[in-house]
Design goal:
It contains nine helices and seven strands; from the N terminus they run βααααββααβαβαββα. With 195 residues, the protein is an alpha+beta fold. A hairpin with an 8-residue loop joins strand 6 and strand 7. The N and C termini lie far apart (41 Å). The protein has a seven-stranded mixed β-sheet with strand order 1-2-3-4-5-7-6, with helices on both faces. InterPro entries: Acyl_CoA_acyltransferase (IPR016181), GNAT_dom (IPR000182). GO terms for molecular function: acyltransferase activity, transferring groups other than amino-acyl groups. Pfam families: Acetyltransf_7 (PF13508).
């Protein structure tokens, strides 16, 4: 059965917080309790300007129930003063930060349960999510390693802005990636960043 994509308005997204964190736990291979400790972060994100969220719901045949969340993607407009935005901005040179971060859409979380990975669901989720913003660019971070996620972003046209970025409290190395969403001055930056 093919999951259905559902645009989640702010209140619907808030009501699905536990489901979102369960998808996160399974996709990231962490204990559900560890994922649910991120509830306060998710709650804070619900208040951000430009919030957009999409869920992939698997319906149970013959049931009127809401179905099971098997994928989720959300983000918002980044701005100075937000922790992630400020961390990333500090890692970039001024021109790159101005080109890619000003007015950008920050893809905060993007996860698909492992049983649904490799089916095209992730591409559909990301495409739907990015269609909900009028931002000129989208940015995100992902572990800086040759992972399935990294290959996914590369084939979808995302470019590296910075690599080997470390966030306080996390020993992993991350890459900052960006994607041009609207034609204009960023197009030239795409060529520079990808060369």
């Amino acid at each position: 059965m093919t999951p259905e994509l559902v645009v989640l308005e702010r209140t619907a997204f808030a009501a699905l917080q536990d489901g979102v964190l369960d998808v996160y736990a399974e996709a990231m291979d962490v204990r559900p309790e560890a994922a649910r400790s991120r509830r306060s972060i998710l709650a804070a994100h619900l208040e951000r300007d430009g919030l957009a969220a999409v869920g992939a719901v698997e319906r149970v045949p013959g049931s009127d129930g809401p179905g099971r969340l098997v994928g989720v993607a959300y983000g918002y407009r980044g701005a100075p003063g937000q922790w992630w935005h400020d961390q990333v901005r500090a890692a970039l040179d001024e021109q790159t930060a101005r080109t890619w971060l000003e007015g950008s859409f920050e893809v905060c979380e993007f996860h698909v349960r492992p049983a649904h990975q490799g089916t095209g669901l992730g591409r559909a989720l990301m495409s739907c999510l990015l269609s909900l913003t009028d931002a000129p660019t989208a940015v995100l971070t992902t572990p800086d390693a040759d992972t399935r996620a990294r290959r996914f972003y590369r084939t979808a046209g995302w470019v590296d802005l910075a690599r080997d970025i470390r966030f306080p409290g996390d020993p992993r190395s991350f890459a900052v990636l960006a994607l041009a969403l609207a034609p204009g001055p960023v197009d030239a930056a795409v060529l520079e960043a990808s060369s």
